[in-house]
Every structure is written in C-alpha cells, then in structure tokens.
Design a protein that fits this description.
CATH class: Alpha Beta
CATH architecture: Roll
Mean pLDDT: 95
CATH topology: Thiol Ester Dehydrase, Chain A
Structural class: alpha+beta
Order of helices and strands: EHHEEEEEH
Low-confidence stretches: none
Strand content: 35-45%
C-alpha cells in the first residue's frame, strides 16, 4: 500500500492554553492530510461535488503519544491498510515529529458515500486507487 506524506509547521492557532496542540486540532490536521493526498490523486472537492461521491469517516481511534509544540515541523504519514468489508476500508495516519518520534496515531474506518442517495456504496476502483490501495 502506498504511503502519503503531508508536512507542515505547527502554528500558534493550533495551540491551547497549555501551549501545546489542542486535542481537537489533531483531528483537523489529520483531515487536512487526507484531503491533500486524495486531491493530489484526482479526488478533490471539485470531483466530490461533480460526481456526488465522497469520503466519510465511519469510526476513529486517536492515540496521543508525544506532546507537539509551537513551530515544530510535523509530517503526517497516511496509508490505507485493508478493506474491512464491502463498504469500509481501514486507514492509518501517524503524526511524526522531526526527531522521528511518533506524536499521535489515528486509525480510521472510512467509506465512500453517494451524496445524492445519502448512503454508503462499495468503493470504486478509481477510489481505491486514489487512496493507495492495491487492487
């Protein structure tokens, strides 16, 4: 399975009153990384709106391992792991500090939704390729 990388700098707007990244902000940053790689692979917001098919998070598990502070450079590594059933896939994401330490781990069950019918559909070959799953 292909691994996608998204690198960015932690900014003051990401911080909470303790001076480290706010817990809810982790989810926002992980989502930015997912949108970045699917957009690069041809499945950006324009395609979602035109085709009325888009990714949805069905379940997630977030584990905090190391504190992330202001102005740190972080890389999020994203990878599709496996197809769980006919509708859901397992994705994993790691937030990695410049030192190589893993700061946070996110495991997601995701699906592909028909936005017109408001229901999950079986992932298309194009979608599986977009998220880096071996066909």
């Amino acid at each position: 399975m292909e691994t996608f990388h998204y690198t960015f700098k932690i900014l003051e707007s990401h911080l909470d009153t303790f001076g480290h990244v706010n817990n809810a902000t982790y989810l926002q940053l992980f989502e930015e990384a997912r949108w970045d790689f699917i957009t690069q692979n041809g499945w950006g917001l324009k395609k979602v709106q035109e085709n009325k098919l888009g990714p949805v998070v069905l379940e997630l598990k977030l584990k905090f391992k190391r504190e992330v502070n202001n102005r740190e450079i972080i890389t999020i590594r994203s990878q599709a792991k496996e197809r769980l059933n006919k509708l859901a896939m397992l994705l994993s994401q790691e937030m990695v500090k410049e030192s190589g330490e893993v700061a946070a781990l996110l495991e997601l069950k995701v699906g592909l939704m028909d936005l017109s019918k408001r229901r999950l559909i079986s992932p298309t070959e194009e979608w599986l390729k977009c998220i880096g799953m071996d066909l």
